[in-house]
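In response to the reviewer comment on reproducibility (Comment 2.3), we provide here a single inverse folding case reported in full, input and output, so that an independent group could reproduce the run without further information from us. The structure tokens appear first.
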């Protein structure tokens, strides 16, 4: 008997708490529904915001000014990708999403996001969903709700909107309010988002108010970067347009183009030559290949200094016209009579100065006399530009010729000695590779003598010779 009484007591106790349990379950269920409804409301408002922002100019041009509304179908917003893929056209309450736009004054677009049909919400649920949605979320209240609200006016957490002349979903349903381009723009003034698209009259929406920190990640596909200062250990760019770039150093892997002048080594651009003619103003310049300057009408360089080929640097200087200097000083020392055509020589700088000499090249000997490569042989260019040796000759004049007279031909046979030798050969001859040329003579001695009562007059002369290249 006692066991039966205990079971009855337990049953009646359970029945007494069931209403409280069911109310708790129902309340938790409604909390979940309200949270889901608020999340969906936020997503739909964000989608409408994206669509209107992206199409603001076309909407401003097409929506009539004066308050008449135009509906933007849900499918249009979904197709534009402004709501997540698979997002439903109805919310958890069974309300269908509708978006209306109007232009109350020129240049200002207002968008209304409404949940039409479906379940009518209790006052507490409407307030909760609007609060969870954020500043742009609202609802149509019941008449007398919260004391003085009316179903003729939608309300949000910090705004109210008369519904006269506007589509209204009816009391107990959701309404979102977005305004673009106006001074009271709720869609843009009540958030701190950085807009992806331009909003006419609101450049601040595309302006950062604080430093942008991307956490070491990349910023890709920048068309033109305009900056007052760029501080970076490395900058890789295909094109940099700037009025001034200040850097401690720069490494360029490709082309560097300057439309103006360049100054380096403490020199200002255009400082080297008066009149601003200088493209590059610097102290020293080292080129490991070729330096070329000026081009003719065919694009051929007028002056070329140095060349590089087959791994060898060459110290050539080439000009299409004249090369002028106060002094021309050959540095290669050659020997007259040695071969010179197709011969490899080395300067004072090692293998980088290896070159091949050819006919027409110029050099000098140890005494500084100029040498020319003629017919494959180093030859003295002029023999020094003076008479190189003297020989002595004699002759007699008179009524008889019994006295011997000396002639240049007799000199060659050793009749008289050379008085002044050639400075190169040390004798009365020219160096190899030159030509012995008779220049003239000068009287050295004149006298008279009688022989057998006959007066004889004689002369002793110096015969002058020069050694020339030809």
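Designed residues, in position order:
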């Amino acid at each position: 008997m006692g066991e039966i009484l205990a079971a009855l007591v337990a049953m009646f106790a359970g029945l007494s708490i069931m209403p409280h349990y069911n109310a708790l379950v129902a309340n938790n269920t409604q909390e979940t529904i309200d949270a889901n409804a608020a999340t969906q409301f936020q997503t739909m408002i964000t989608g409408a915001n994206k669509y209107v922002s992206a199409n603001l100019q076309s909407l401003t041009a097409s929506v009539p000014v004066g308050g008449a509304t135009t509906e933007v179908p849900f499918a249009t917003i979904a197709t534009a990708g402004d709501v997540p893929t698979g997002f439903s056209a109805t919310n958890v309450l069974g309300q269908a999403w509708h978006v209306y736009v109007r232009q109350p004054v020129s240049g200002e677009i207002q968008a209304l996001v409404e949940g039409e049909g479906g379940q009518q919400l209790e006052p507490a649920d409407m307030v909760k969903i609007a609060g969870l949605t954020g500043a742009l979320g609202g609802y149509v209240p019941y008449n007398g709700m919260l004391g003085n609200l009316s179903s003729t006016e939608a309300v949000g957490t910090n705004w109210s909107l008369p519904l006269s002349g506007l589509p209204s979903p009816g009391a107990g349903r959701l309404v979102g309010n977005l305004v673009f381009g106006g001074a009271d723009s709720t869609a843009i003034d009540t958030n701190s988002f950085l807009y992806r698209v331009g909003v006419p009259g609101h450049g601040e929406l595309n302006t950062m108010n604080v430093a942008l920190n991307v956490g070491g990640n990349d910023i890709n596909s920048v068309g033109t970067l305009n900056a007052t200062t760029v501080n970076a250990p490395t900058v890789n760019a295909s094109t940099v347009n700037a009025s001034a770039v200040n850097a401690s150093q720069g490494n360029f892997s490709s082309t560097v183009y300057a439309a103006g002048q360049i100054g380096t080594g403490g020199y200002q651009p255009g400082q080297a030559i008066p009149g601003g003619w200088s493209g590059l103003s610097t102290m020293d310049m080292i080129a490991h290949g070729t330096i070329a300057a000026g081009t003719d009408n065919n694009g051929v360089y007028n002056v070329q200094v140095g060349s590089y080929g087959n791994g060898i640097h060459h110290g050539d200087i080439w000009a299409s016209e004249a090369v002028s200097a106060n002094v021309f000083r050959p540095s290669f020392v050659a020997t007259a009579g040695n071969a010179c055509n197709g011969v490899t020589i080395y300067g004072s700088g090692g293998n980088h100065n290896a070159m091949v000499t050819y006919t027409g090249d110029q050099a000098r000997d140890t005494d500084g006399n100029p040498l020319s490569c003629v017919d494959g042989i180093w030859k003295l260019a002029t023999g020094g530009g003076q008479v190189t040796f003297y020989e002595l000759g004699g002759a007699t004049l008179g009524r008889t010729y019994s006295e011997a007279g000396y002639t240049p031909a007799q000199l060659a046979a050793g009749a008289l000695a050379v008085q002044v030798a050639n400075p190169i050969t040390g004798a009365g001859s020219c160096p190899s590779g030159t030509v012995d040329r008779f220049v003239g003579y000068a009287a050295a001695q004149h006298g008279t003598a009688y022989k057998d009562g006959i007066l004889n007059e004689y002369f002793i002369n110096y015969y002058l010779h020069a050694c020339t290249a030809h």
